[in-house]
Amino acid sequence: MHWADVMAEKLSHRGSKHIIASGITPSGEFHIGHIREILTGHMITKACQKRGLDAEFVFIVDSADPLRKIYPFLSEDYQPYIGHPLATIPAPLGDGSASDGETSYAQHFLEPFLKALKEIGVEPRIIDNYNSYATGEFASRAKIACEKADEIREIIERVSGRELSKDWFPYNPIGADGSMDDVLVTGFEWPYVHWNQKGIEGKSDLRKAEGKLPWRIDWPARWGWIGITCEPFGKDHGTAGGSYSTGREISILFGDEPPMPLTYEWISLRGQGAMSSSTGNTIGPLEALELVPPQILLYLIARSKPNKAIDFDPGVGLVELADEFERLSNKDFNAIDFDSLPRRKKVMLEDEMGALSLSKLENLDQENISFRHLAMLAQIKSDDEIFSDFGDNVADQLSRMRHWIQGPHFPDSMRITVRDKPMPDIHTLPYVKELSEILEICEWNADTIGKAIPTGIKNRDGMVKDAYKTLYMAILNREKGPRLASILYEIGREKALHLLGQT
Asked: Which of 139, 282, 298, 463 has the fewest Cβ atoms nearer than 10 Å?
């Protein structure tokens, strides 16, 4: 059974109505590591719906969180905004300086992410945390937190094993300068938290966005008022003493039932470690979708159990991933006698079927060309030539492919540059005559060409490896490269013979 179906089955024992959630702080550019979190929630939701459960997926934007520091992509313009909610500060410009504030910092990073999600068929209900504070959604649980500050302190210190500061309070008010930094809580009298910031006194209304709960309390509070029954989260939150452990007990203190957890591992960028918005070690979701067809990106997440780390390779690994997806897409699962299979094989096939089902987009035309083949065609043919052979429905796939080829991730081993004219010394190379004779008479399709060359050379007592070197040099000006039979077929017999010195 696929991991999403396993979660759906567990949730079915809890009831028929479910809200699955995912939440991210828009502190910087979103990356495909964030995609894992939201797609995990999306896939659990789909699996629940498949079982007939009333399931909804929500995406919580933690826009009430403060700007914690000046990240490498920001200028010193942001120094005055440290400690301010992300929803209230201006978006950065391309040079890292602050804009005029027409778009908020949170919106700036959120909107491209939502656009990317829409491209892969994910459109959750968006819950903006800053707005939720502003409309009083957190108020009742913030009241309990302030009234039971000592109990919550005890939970956090006992479960996490760390001591909180003497002036800690389960609510962070916004001070006179718009920041939550250097604000000391001096008292609580519903609905106000009284505070002092560098000698300035004030009060914050819990029913408004005049502050927020700290993360370890904010998280279980939202579980309650939203009614979340399941939430996937990164392994940092799932460790012993982590925020889920404290959140469970705080949630019960609020009078709520904690959601069913699912901890996931990180996505790393091959050779560069875990992705991080703050360090800039990322491939953004839109950038990823400029490289990866949506169904391939979905498959990357669907095929991987959440507790397994993903090492994302935007080079050769991407081709191998596409090959795997295409192989599964062409597999006739209906022809398989599952009853006769050993359990391990049956489980593997069920996982494959589940991953494939969760990766296919209903509104996407079935592609009639493989990822690997298109990579070759895009380097030797024009758009019009490709459309003529395969139709306009490959336009989107072709656009992504050209972007990948032109970018830094395209593997050198797949690069192709077909010669315009024969090598000056073409006739001095071994096997030129033999290869010309073979290509002149063989049936012109990739499979036949691929079989005819080694057979013909062997029949002439020649070395197939050396003959291929000659052919690669004559066609591509290199001794090896992608499958040559397909390249020869696409450039045509006339051009192939011309490059071998035949007029």
From this structure: 463
Q: Which pLDDT tens digit goes with each residue over 181-207?
A: 999 999 999 999 999 999 999 999 999
Q: How many domains does the chain have?
A: 3
Sequence-ordered list of residues with C-beta below 8 angstroms from that of 101, at least 6 positions apart, any chain:
89, 90, 91
Q: Is residue 299 part of a domain?
A: no
Q: Which domain CATH number covers 154?
A: 3.40.50.620
User: What is the C-alpha to C-alpha distance for residues 19 and 244, in angstroms, rounded to an integer?
Assistant: 17
Burial class (CB in 10 A: 0-12, 13-18, 19+), 164: middle
Identify whether 226 is part of a domain: yes
At 267-326, the pLDDT tens digits run: 887 766 555 555 554 576 667 777 778 899 899 999 999 999 998 888 899 999 999 999
In this structure, are residues 446 and 486 in contact, taking their beta carbons and an 8 Å threshold?
A: yes
pLDDT in tens, 139-178: 999 999 999 999 999 999 999 999 999 999 999 999 999 9
Q: What is the DSSP string of 155-217?
A: HHHHHH--PPPTT--S-EE--TTS-STT-EEEEEETTEEEEEETTEEEEEETTTTSEE--HHH
pTM check: above 0.85: yes
Host domain of residue 375: 371-414
Residue 177 and residue 36 in one domain: yes
